[in-house]
Amino acid sequence: MVEAHAAKGHQHTSSNLSAVQPPADPLAGMEPRVLSLGGTVGGPLPTFTISTQLQGRSILTDTDLTPDEIAMVIDTAMKLKAQRKAGKPQAYLTGKTIAMLFQHPSTRTRVSFEAGMAQLGGQALFLGMNDLQLKRGETIADTGQVLSRYVDAIVARVALHTDIMELQEASSVPVINGLTDRAHPMQALCDLMTLQEQFGTLKGVTLAYLGDGNNMVQSLLLAGAAMGVNLRVATPPQYAPNPEIVQQAEWLAATSGGGASVLVTDDPLLAASGADAVYTDVHVSMGQLDGAKRAVALAPYKVTDAVMAEAKQEAVFMHCLPMHRDEEVAASVADGPQSIIFDQAENRLHIHKAVLLHLLCSAPQGL
Ligand code: CP
Ligand code: NVA
Fold first, then answer.
1. CB of residue 229 inside a 6 A radius of ligand 2
2. In this structure, which ligand is nearest to the CA of 188?
C-alpha cells in the first residue's frame, strides 16, 4: 500500500481548485480586490490510502479483475465520491496524462474520463480516430507503441474487441476498454457500484436484463456473476449473448460463494419476475447494420410498466444510456420513480477516477 500523496505544502493547480465547491463569496458585489491563488489556499490535499495491486494493469474485459479487485475499485470509487461531495481537492495524479482513442461517439465515457482526470490533477487527451494517422493506414500496433511513449494510460472505444487486444499487446502502458463489440467493463463496474449503493450488498441481488444480447449484457453477466449477483437475461434466441460468455458467467456465479445463478431465456416476464433491478440497453448498438430486423425482433423485450410490475415492488430500473424512450423502455418507466439511470451515469465519474487512481498511482517522491 502507498499513500498517494503527502499532505503539507502542496502546490494547488487550477484543476484541483475546480474540484473544490467554493463557499458563497461574502464580498460579492463589493469593490474589486486582490485574491491569493496557489500556495496552500484551500488547505492541503487529503491523504488517500490505496492498494498498488492494480498498478500498470490493463482492463479489457470484466474478468481482468478478480472479485476482490472489483470490490476494491468500488470501495475506492465510493470514497472518492464522498470526498468530492465534501468538496475536497483530489489532485492525486498531478503530471499524469491519458490518451482517449475513440472510434464511436460518447457522452458519458468521454466526459467522465476527461473530467475525472482533470479532478485528479492530470490531463486527458481526446483523440477521435479520424484525427489520427490511423485514418491514413497507420497500424493500431504502431499507434499503441507511439502513444505509450507520451502518456501514462490509454482509454479506447473501438468497434472490434480484437482491435483493443492488438492495441494492448503493442502498448507498454495500461489500456482501458471504453466499449467494444464484446464488452463494456467500465459501465458494468459503475452498475455494480450503483446496485451496491441501492441494496447495501451485491450478493443475492437479482438483476434482470431484457433486450439485445450485446456488449452490455455480456459485461453484466461476467462482472455481476463474479460478485454473486443473480442474472436473469431475456433476449430473442437469435440475439442471445455469446454462449462462451454465458458459460463463463455460470462458472463465476457457482464459485462466487453466494449461491448466485444465471438464467438465459427468451421470456421477458420470466426474467423480470421477482427481480430487484430491471436493466435494458438500446436495441441497435453502434456499428450494427441490421437495425430494422433487430427492432422488430426486440420489440417484445421493451421494458414497460407491465414488465416492472413483474419485478419486486421496490425494484429499480437501470439503463447504461443513451436510451431511446418508447423503443427499448417506456418513457413512463425511464422517467418514473423507480428509475436510477442518472445515478448510474454519475457513478461513471467516480468509477473511472478509482480505476485511474489504482492503475496509475505511484508513491510521492521521497517515500
Ligand atoms: N453508457 C455509455 O457508455 O455512454 P456513452 O456512449 O455516452 O459513453
Ligand atoms: N450497446 C451499446 C452501448 C452504448 C453505451 C452500444 O454498443 O452502442
1. no
2. 1
Report the top-level CATH class of 187-345.
alpha beta
Ligand 1 mean position, distance from CA 219 (Å): 14
> Grid coordinates 458459460 are at which residue?
247
> What residues contact residue 342 under an 8 Å CB cut-off, 6+ apart?
none
What is the predicted pLDDT for the residue at 142? 98
Cβ 179 under 6 angstroms from ligand 1: yes
Phi, psi of 342 (to 5 degrees): -85, -20
User: What's the rounded Cα separation, in Å, for the pair 126 and 115?
Assistant: 12
Q: What is the mean pLDDT of each run of 10 residues along the chain (367 residues)?
A: 41 43 59 66 80 96 98 98 97 97 98 98 96 96 98 98 98 98 98 98 98 98 98 98 98 93 98 98 94 95 98 98 98 98 98 98 63
pLDDT at 31: 75
Atom of ligand 2 nearest to the CA of 216: 1
Residue 229 to residue 196: CA distance in whole angstroms: 10
What phi and psi values does residue 155 have, to the nearest 5 degrees? Answer: -100, 130
Contact criterion met (CB below 8 Å) for 154 and 101: yes
Name, in order, each residue with C-beta under 8 angstroms of 280's C-beta and a sequence gap of 6 or more.
Answer: 209, 210, 211, 301, 302, 303, 318, 319, 328, 329
CB of 162 sitting under 6 A from ligand 1: no
How confident is the model at residue 13, as a pLDDT? 39
Helix ranges restricted to H, the chain? 14-19, 67-85, 108-119, 140-150, 161-170, 185-199, 215-226, 243-254, 268-272, 291-298, 305-310, 331-334, 341-360
360 lines ligand 2 (CB under 6 A): no
Distance 46 CA to ligand 1 centre (A): 31
